[in-house]
Write a structure and sequence with these properties.
The chain is of the alpha+beta class. The chain is built from 4 helices and 4 strands. Helices cover about 35% and strands about 15% of the residues. Strand 3 and strand 4 form a beta hairpin. It starts with a strand and ends in an 11-residue tail after the last strand.
């Protein structure tokens, strides 16, 4: 059975809820704080591909950095969005949960049950 990995920010309430659901499931999992262990571009791109999502699908548009950089008015390529997300992890929606070839954006947190 493939192990579950949750890419998260520990101070995020949705991430905490998803981690709690994983603990309650009894299934082994690894929690990765992507602020301490940043995504590589290839890693984030691979996770998005498995999830069937584009970088803009996981963009946090309510973050201050989004406004500061004027991103609402910019048209960027997927690679440019990925570069920005790597440089500014607050732009990444969370948590991202992977199990083998399956990857989901666990919003709401209960959607993590789809992988269990």
């Amino acid at each position: 059975m493939a192990e579950v990995t949750i890419y998260q920010k520990p101070t995020c309430s949705t991430c905490r809820q998803a981690v709690q659901l994983l603990k309650e499931s009894g299934q082994p999992f690894t929690a990765v704080n992507y602020y301490e262990q940043p995504f590589t571009k290839a890693q984030l791109k691979g996770l998005l591909k498995k999830a069937g999502l584009a970088p803009k699908d996981i963009l946090r548009t309510k973050e201050e950095i989004y406004k500061e950089l004027g991103l609402a008015k910019k048209t960027l390529s997927d690679d440019e969005w990925l570069d920005l997300m790597i440089a500014h992890p607050d732009l990444i929606q969370r948590p991202i949960v992977a199990k083998g070839e399956q990857v989901i954006l666990a919003r709401p947190a209960e959607s993590v049950k789809e992988l269990l």
